[in-house]
């Protein structure tokens, strides 16, 4: 980066800070002149955002007033959201009683929250409190519950992913391998949904690391290859170097030297593509040490010594030669032991043992105990050899027992999962067959109805045809009857005339009576009634409130100067954490000095690594101490 560009960035940063400060002063002045509560509540919303972002001392008073007014206006989600920053403040200054008080008070309004993720954010804070008070199981329970809510509501997926990642790390601290693996895998899926390549690679690297530690080399290789693929997609050459290099290390453990050579060659290719000077130095140092180990395994001591000298050169080119020299003693000890220069080997191994107790150095220390026992044995110092060998065996036994237990649990879990999958498949098959049977029965009923309908139609048509024929016959018969009646009437008239004449003629008194009858026919009708039922459905309310969180800590100006040239984009909190890492403090020590939670330090470290453009497999501690 040119001096002109660096100056522009610094100037813009300064202007932004001045503008923000002025805005805070203006809002504060406006607040002092405002007495109406609703207006004060709205002003405090802006003021709390700005003072939290600037880490102003006045944020506490503003937050407390905001929460108080929020209670009056019954804006439960809003003031609970703001309370998170107040809780973070008390956690950061180690006032854990106040942390618990505010968390419990806010969760007391849980039934009044409209947005379930409000509770989820508070659970994250309470989990952090439990972790800081060594209540790991309670911390795990809150992390899990928080992640479940974010996933169910399909809001704040990044928070759900972080919750799963933190859960995995707590399980890892408790040496609960299986639960750690499960939560790492869930975190990876969520980061993958977000297309967050950095944290995808970070999670996979953590997963690959615990697989390797527990003897699952094939699983570790598979995860490293995923890291490799992700790094290729985003053209992260530094991550590619470390991904290939770590694959070489894994294959070296199983003595697959052809693949070790292949991955070392790939690492060599991508080292040249690394642009950042310090990252290039570190990548070359990493590569040189890979070649030292590879050649020692092949008994090529001369080649190994050549690469050791090359590593020393890269150490001197680094920004922290003393630190990297200290981290490189294990390779010196290996070469000196192979050369039977036991005095130098002993000196180097003792320096490795000085790393005992430091995070991530357990494997180096254990290996150094074993090598030192060999050195003392070769020089006739059997008592010392026995002591170091005994220490090594104790460490190895504890490690093997852990690996054995974790292996058993892992395969047991896989067996149970497969058995559950088989049961689920069986149930699904039965359900599908039952559904098909129901469908067949349904089709049969439809076919029966169709056949009955066809029979009815055919019967109706036959009846209609017969009815039409009968009607024609009735009409013909009616005409015949009419004709016959006409003829009978005519005959009757003739007979009557004859009878009349006869009666007159015979002078007899006879009467003729005719009786007529009528036929009536009535038809009956039938009426039907219909019945209608009404159904009612409940409706649920849902609102969307996006809750964001950002907290920036104070900065040590002296260390700012040492990092600004290389990384001008770092925040005050980033540089303060870097300064603590630089002097070799552990996470708990940093947490104590900064008076914040280990959980918060972890989050800062994760994001800091991304800002420093480090690969998922690069050590943040090593890089910071190199500056």
Topology of helices and strands:
Elements: H1 3-32, H2 37-54, H3 59-72, H4 76-92, H5 96-107, H6 116-132, H7 136-153, H8 157-173, H9 177-194, H10 197-213, H11 217-233, H12 237-253, H13 257-271, H14 277-297, H15 301-317, H16 321-327, H17 329-338, H18 342-353, H19 362-378, H20 382-506, H21 557-564, H22 572-582, H23 587-594, H24 598-611, H25 620-625
Helix pairs in contact: 1-2, 2-3, 3-4, 4-5, 4-6, 5-6, 6-7, 7-8, 8-9, 9-10, 10-11, 11-12, 12-13, 12-14, 13-14, 14-15, 14-17, 15-16, 15-17, 17-18, 17-19, 18-19, 19-20, 23-24
Short descriptors:
5 domains, Serine Threonine Protein Phosphatase 5, Tetratricopeptide repeat, 25 helices, membrane, disordered N terminus, 627 residues, mainly alpha
Describe this structure in words.
Residues 1-21 and 502-556 have low confidence and may be disordered. With 627 residues, the protein is an all-alpha fold. It folds into 5 domains: 1-51 and 59-73, no CATH class; 82-149, no CATH class; 196-327, Tetratricopeptide repeat domain (Serine Threonine Protein Phosphatase 5, Tetratricopeptide repeat, Alpha Horseshoe); 344-356 and 363-469; 557-625, Winged helix-like DNA-binding domain superfamily/Winged helix DNA-binding domain (Arc Repressor Mutant, subunit A), CATH 1.10.10. The protein starts with a helix and ends with a helix. The chain has helices at residues 3-32, 37-54, 59-72, 76-92, 96-107, 116-132, 136-153, 157-173, 177-194, 197-213, 217-233, 237-253, 257-271, 277-297, 301-317, 321-327, 329-338, 342-353, 362-378, 382-506, 557-564, 572-582, 587-594, 598-611, 620-625. It has 25 helices and no strands. The protein is 77% helix and 0% strand. Helix 1 (3-32) packs antiparallel against helix 2, helix 7 packs antiparallel against helix 8 and helix 15 (301-317) runs antiparallel to helix 17. The chain is elongated.
């Amino acid at each position: 980066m040119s001096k002109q560009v660096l100056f522009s960035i610094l100037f813009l940063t300064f202007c932004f800070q001045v503008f923000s400060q002025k805005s805070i002063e203006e809002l504060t002045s406006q607040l002092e002149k405002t007495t109406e509560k609703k207006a004060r509540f709205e002003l405090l919303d802006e003021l709390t955002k700005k003072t939290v972002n600037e880490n102003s001392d006045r944020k506490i008073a503003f937050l407390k007033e905001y929460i108080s007014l929020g209670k009056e206006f019954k804006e439960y989600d809003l003031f609970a959201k703001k309370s998170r920053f107040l809780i973070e403040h008390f956690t950061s200054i180690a006032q854990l009683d106040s942390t618990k008080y505010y968390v419990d008070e806010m969760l007391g309004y849980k039934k009044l929250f409209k947005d379930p993720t409000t509770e989820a954010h508070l659970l994250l804070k309470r989990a952090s409190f439990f972790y800081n008070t060594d209540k790991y199981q309670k911390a795990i329970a809150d992390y899990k519950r928080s992640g479940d809510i974010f996933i169910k509501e399909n809001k704040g997926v990044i928070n759900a992913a972080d919750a799963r990642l933190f859960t995995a790390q707590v399980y890892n601290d408790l040496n609960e391998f299986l639960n750690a693996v499960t939560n790492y895998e869930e975190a990876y899926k969520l980061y993958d949904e977000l297309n967050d390549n950095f944290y995808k690679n970070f999670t996979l690297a953590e997963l690959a690391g615990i697989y390797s530690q527990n003897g699952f080399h094939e699983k570790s290789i598979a995860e490293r290859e995923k890291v490799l693929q992700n790094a290729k997609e985003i053209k992260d050459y530094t991550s590619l170097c470390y991904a290939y290099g770590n694959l070489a290390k894994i294959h070296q453990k199983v003595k697959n030297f052809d693949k070790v050579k292949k991955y070392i060659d790939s690492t060599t290719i991508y080292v040249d593509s690394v642009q950042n000077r310090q990252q290039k130095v570190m990548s070359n140092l990493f590569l040189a040490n890979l070649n030292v180990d590879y050649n020692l395994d092949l008994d090529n001591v001369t080649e190994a010594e050549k690469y050791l000298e090359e590593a020393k050169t890269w150490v001197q080119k680094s920004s922290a030669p003393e630190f990297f020299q200290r981290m490189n003693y294990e390779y010196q000890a290996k070469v000196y032991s192979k050369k039977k220069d036991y005095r130098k080997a002993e000196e180097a191994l003792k320096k490795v043992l000085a790393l005992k107790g430091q995070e991530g150095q357990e494997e180096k220390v254990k290996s150094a105990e074993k090598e030192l026992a060999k050195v003392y044995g070769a020089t006739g110092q059997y008592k010392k050899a026995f002591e170091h060998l005994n220490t090594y065996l104790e460490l190895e036994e504890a490690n093997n027992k852990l690996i054995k237990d974790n292996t058993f649990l892992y395969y047991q879990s896989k067996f149970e999962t497969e058995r559950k999958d088989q049961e689920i498949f069986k149930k699904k098959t039965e359900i599908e067959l039952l559904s098909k049977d129901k469908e067949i029965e349904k089709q049969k009923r439809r076919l029966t109805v169709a056949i009955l309908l066809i029979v009815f139609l055919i019967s109706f048509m036959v009846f209609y045809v017969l009815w039409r024929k009968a009607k024609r016959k009735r009409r013909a018969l009616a005409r015949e009857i009419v004709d016959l009646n006409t003829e009978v009437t005519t005959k009757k008239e003739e007979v009557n005339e004859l009878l009349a004449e006869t009666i007159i003629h015979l002078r007899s008194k006879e009467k003729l009576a005719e009786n007529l009858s009528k036929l009536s026919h009535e038809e009956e009708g039938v009426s039907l009634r219909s019945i209608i039922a009404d159904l009612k459905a409940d409706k649920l309310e849902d609102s969307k409130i996006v809750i964001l969180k950002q907290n920036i800590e104070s900065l040590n100006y002296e260390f700012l100067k040492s990092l600004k040239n290389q990384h001008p984009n770092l925040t005050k909190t980033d540089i303060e954490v870097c300064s603590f890492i630089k002097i070799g403090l552990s996470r708990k020590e940093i947490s104590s000095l900064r008076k914040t939670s280990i959980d918060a330090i972890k989050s800062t470290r994760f994001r800091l690594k991304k800002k420093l453009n480090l690969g998922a497999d690069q050590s943040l501690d090593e890089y910071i101490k190199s500056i």
